[in-house]
Specification:
The protein is an alpha+beta fold and 226 residues long. Helices cover 45% and strands 15% of the residues. It contains 7 helices and 6 strands; from the N terminus they run H-H-H-E-E-H-H-E-H-E-E-E-H. The strands form 2 sheets. Strands 3-6-5-4 form a 4-stranded antiparallel beta sheet, sandwiched between helices. Helix 4 packs antiparallel against helix 5 and helix 4 packs parallel to helix 7. The protein is elongated, with a radius of gyration of 30 Å. The termini are far apart.
């Protein structure tokens, strides 16, 4: 058998299946040299193994730093969510709740543009700004949403509720509000978060946190539902 006839995959497989090979043939291990990862002189297999281990350590450290960063961001979000929820629980005047929802999102979560509309509210609240008549297409859109929408402002009718009628809004999130706790919960409102930054709300964003926002807001605002 010649060297040319050897399959490198067979060699690699053999060495993987026989980890004691270099113990049986220590001279081979001592004589093996390979090119350095970034060029230059040839190095021993031991040195190459050390390079591989160092690189793995660097990757693991970078991954750990990223996990710590994500954990810290989640802690901040959880603290802000608790603060916002507390404000809703402390509000005794039901008519004030829509303002508490929107002002809290704008202030606590630094959302530049926030708007809210409710429909099918109690007769006593129908004169309020949050219950102003809206286009039937918006109600149909909200009722058909299975999760919040995040992405560019594709001329959504609800964007007109935002400051400046949404003319400066480049990205937004649409969050349907449900009344009740069962699987057939009735949609009775829509929360709109907007930003002039096209990257604030993107289609690649996860919606789990926005769903929590919608659940809490819906539960609080259900006191206004008819």
């Amino acid at each position: 058998m010649t060297i040319e006839s050897l399959d490198p995959n067979d060699v690699a497989r053999y060495l993987s299946e026989h980890p004691d090979f270099f113990q049986a043939f220590p001279d081979v291990l001592g004589n093996v040299t390979i090119p350095a990862a970034h060029g230059g002189r040839a190095i021993s297999l031991h040195e190459r193994q050390l390079e591989v281990l160092r690189e793995r350590n660097r990757q693991q450290e970078a991954r750990l730093v990223e996990l710590i960063r994500i954990g810290q961001e989640n802690d901040v979000l959880a603290e802000r969510l608790q603060q916002w929820t507390r404000q809703l629980l402390l509000e005794s005047d039901a008519v004030r709740l829509p303002s508490v929802v929107t002002e809290g999102l704008a202030g606590i979560f630094s959302v530049p543009q926030v708007a809210l509309r409710l429909w099918n509210v109690r007769d006593a609240h129908r004169s309020q700004a949050f219950a102003a008549p809206i286009d039937a297409d918006i109600i149909t859109l909200a009722a058909g949403m299975r999760q919040p929408y995040c992405g560019p402002n594709a001329e959504f009718l609800a964007a007109a509720w935002l400051p400046g009628e949404g003319r400066e809004t480049r990205s937004l999130a649409l969050i349907p509000l449900h009344e009740g706790q069962s699987g057939d919960m009735r949609v009775f409102g829509l929360l709109v978060l907007g930003s002039p930054d096209p990257d604030r709300f993107t289609t690649s964003m996860g919606t789990a946190f926005l769903e929590r926002i919608g659940e809490i807001a819906g539960a609080a605002l259900s006191r206004l539902a008819g």
